[in-house]
Design goal:
Shape: globular
Number of strands: 0
Number of helices: 15
Number of domains: 1
Oligomer: single chain
Strand content: under 5%
Order of helices and strands: HHHHHHHHHHHHHHH
Length: 307
């Protein structure tokens, strides 16, 4: 397979992976809007994901790769991951999927700002200007006048942005962790903490879960893990600089799922703001080469050479 063909295949696989994550997000949105307690959503999906990953790895004889070397650091990141999921579930319950992705697309900007503040990394003037343009896109998309008039959901946007802050923190933590921990360990421990903490909370409160909702939660976990697996293959076949920008594809299936499943119609301000954010994000990643500096979860998964 030629290098060009390999990159094309990688891009297609990445698009498939991000699309699967769209459907996984839709599952969380369905669960959140069903008024099922967040602790049960987190616990049940975490448990299902752990079981799925355990069965797959056991069948391949690779359970040893789940063992962490730095238990403290891996656990801290897993707890942060739980915060991300909780924030996302709240955001999904208040926002259309397209609006959520619009906020999520600012992650590269937030990571760069945090790296500049805490890791003392430098940003060029051009990149600073791009970041400013990206946040202007948020203002356009959110439309503060409409938000203040009651036409938007402040809680949803706030939850989404706090989730971005948590996610950016977890991504920066991947730098030292990727040198000592296997991708399977990082992902599995994250799911294990979700399942353990969520399920342990059932002692204090638990509401009956319908068979339909159990299917939704199982499907959400299965689709999410499947997206992880496909991303592994994508990152093995192509460069991070080819795969990472494919995340912006999520706005399209996200908008379609929102329209056909949740009857959400994107506003023109959202479309214009999203276009600004996506253009700024693509330029930013290309100029800063952020995809190589700070690996995404998919990139960490791709480092596993036995897949």
């Amino acid at each position: 397979m030629s290098k060009l063909t390999s990159q094309v295949v990688a891009a297609l696989l990445a698009l498939a992976s991000f699309t699967l994550w769209n459907f996984s997000d839709a599952g969380f949105k369905l669960a959140g809007e069903s008024h099922l307690p967040i602790n049960q959503i987190v616990g049940i999906t975490g448990l299902f994901a752990v079981l799925i990953m355990f069965c797959v790895s056991a069948a391949r004889g690779e359970l040893i790769k789940f063992k962490p070397k730095n238990k403290r650091l891996v656990t801290i990141r897993a707890i942060i991951g739980m915060g991300i999921l909780i924030c996302n579930i709240i955001a999904f319950s208040h926002l259309p999927l397209a609006n959520f992705y619009m906020i999520a697309f600012t992650t590269p900007f937030v990571i760069a700002i945090m790296a500049m503040i805490f890791l003392h990394e430098r940003l060029s003037l051009a990149n600073v200007l791009v970041i400013i343009v990206g946040f202007i896109g948020i203002v356009v998309a959110v439309n503060p006048a409409d938000l203040l008039a009651g036409g938007g959901d402040f809680i949803g946007y706030l939850s989404a942005f706090v989730g971005v802050l948590f996610f950016a923190t977890s991504q920066i933590m991947l730098r030292p962790m990727s040198q000592t921990e296997t991708p399977e360990c990082i992902i599995f421990i994250g799911r294990l903490v979700l399942g353990a903490v969520g399920c342990s909370s059932f002692v204090f409160s638990f509401e009956p879960v319908s068979f339909y909702m159990l299917l939704v939660l199982f499907g959400t976990a299965l689709i999410g893990v499947s997206g992880d697996i496909i991303m592994v293959v994508a990152m093995k076949k192509g460069q991070a600089s080819v795969v990472a920008p494919c995340q912006y594809w999520q706005i399209i299936p996200g908008a379609l799922i929102g329209y056909f499943v949740f009857s959400d119609v994107p506003s023109w301000s959202l479309v214009c703001g999203a276009a600004i954010i996506i253009a700024a994000g693509l330029f930013f990643m290309r100029s800063l080469n952020l995809t190589k500096q700070i690996p995404s979860e998919g990139q960490i998964l791709s480092e596993f050479q036995g897949t």
